[in-house]
Amino acid sequence: VELQQSHLLLSTFLKEQLNDMEQIDRVGLVDVHTGLGPKGFDTILSGGDADTLLSILQDDKNDEDIKKHIASFGTAGSAGSGYDDVVGDTATGIGSLFLPSTSYLSMTQEFGTVKAVFVAQALREENAAYWYAPWNRIRAAQRVRSAFYLHDDPQWKADIVKRGADVFWKMHKYLE
């Protein structure tokens, strides 16, 4: 199986930085995505146990609120819709670097940007430019970037930093 360039770079980095991977007994991975779901809202996706995710992410202040953020891959009407058809992912690839006895927990945190139809439109335009209109590739690439990263929206950026840090530190606490 050939890895995507980003997965190859991450795997190489981890192997170089984690000197003795056989000694690692717990690993947590938060794979951050943008694009799908309501603008600025994060959906936590996992193929694993939703109750475990809930126990990690809940705190006294948001017991009910956090349930709105959790979905399984393939859940209709959520940011996870369509992911059930994906073959291969970061969680599986990175998880394979560790011993089977390693306690490994992964989740995807998907932050919404624009409506899904505009994300799809930007991706289709970029694909068409790649194959049929190479002179238009820069403009198409800029539209894809704008669909996945709201560079002129400080509130969107603040929402991502706030929720991203919250999930990171809760995962860290769980693994301690």
From TrEMBL:
InterPro entries reported for this sequence: DUF2817
Protein name from the UniProt record: Uncharacterized protein
The organism of origin for this protein: Helicotheca tamesis
Lineage, uppermost ranks: Eukaryota, Sar, Stramenopiles, Ochrophyta, Bacillariophyta
